[in-house]
Amino acid sequence: MSVQLSFPSNALFVGHKNPDTDCTCSAIAAANLWGGTPIVQGELNPETEFVLKHFNVEKPAFEDNFAGKDVVIVDHNQTTQSAASVVEANILSIIDHHAVQDNFFFQKGPIHIDMRTVASCCTIIADYYADMNVEITAQMAGVMLGGILSDTLGLTVPHTTDIDREVAAKLAKIAGVEDIEAFAQEMLIAKSDLSKYTAAEILNLDYKDFIFGDIKIGFGVCESLLIDKVIAKHDEITAAMQENKKNGYEAIFFAYVDLTTNNSVVIGADDADYAVLEKAFGIAKGDLGVSLEGKISRKNDFIPPVSAHYNS
Ligand SMILES: [Mn+2]
């Protein structure tokens, strides 16, 4: 029997910038398990708001100054996904399910790292509850279920594992969610209501920086059941991307993800960006952008070809 993982009570459990449901709920559930404070690095999106409200769980506090603080990183492993001050933090652990690429959180000494090939960071956190024999409350089961359903789009994305499915079923039972599919649909509806956001806000809702060598790119994604309403703002979104590009970016990309068809159209800020997309995906630009059938995941479908392009 190994010694159980523990963290000091002042530890901050930190999800990535432009928080999504998985990172927010991972931070909440992990802080609840180990003791400590869940942190978000930005405004919650409408889906996360819906999940927290549904299970009557408090929003995490906002923080982006991590200098000198004890930090447990959840749902990311690259400095580009966190505030700049994170490099001055005392990182205790990284618990994540993303590829290890450039800009990893390198540390001076050995730390605890747990990276698994599951589709949601909440799946990993739920496993720690089981491992440590800690009873999961209905509230914590609800938020972790929310994280899993969010990252897997209701357990439908191809990289969903049997472990994610198993854990989701167990959590749903504890949380009192009888119909997982119906609940996932409610989450998607909440996520798709982007009426209160400007084009620039939509661009930044689910937006990540990636650095390949000395090249920085931005990649935003919008997954929606009502993607036509977002595409109606195409000119404004393109203008916002061009504005963003001035901040030291080689390229800015954005994916319109249609959750009714599971097809995506990836757009660029300008002709140079479209040339990159055409090369990376081997597909000519159409009226709107580069159309990708059956591809919806930034982590699995969009970033690998773009990364291969810049690293070649
Ligand atoms: Mn995640």
TrEMBL record:
SMART domains assigned: DHHA2
Q: Name one Pfam family in it.
A: DHHA2
Q: Which GO terms describe its cellular component?
A: cytoplasm
InterPro entries recorded: DDH_dom, DHH_sf, DHHA2, DHHA2_dom_sf
This enzyme catalyses: diphosphate + H2O = 2 phosphate + H(+)
Q: Give a yes or no for keyword Metal-binding in this entry.
A: yes
* MF (Gene Ontology): inorganic diphosphate phosphatase activity; metal ion binding
Cofactor(s) named in the record:
Mn(2+)
Report the EC code(s) recorded for this entry: 3.6.1.1
Task: Give the top-level enzyme category.
Answer: hydrolase
Domain DHHA2 residues, every copy:
184-310
Q: Which UniProt keywords apply?
A: Hydrolase, Manganese, Metal-binding
- Top-rank taxon, per record: Bacteria
Q: What is this protein called?
A: inorganic diphosphatase
Q: Which organism is it from?
A: Flammeovirga aprica JL-4
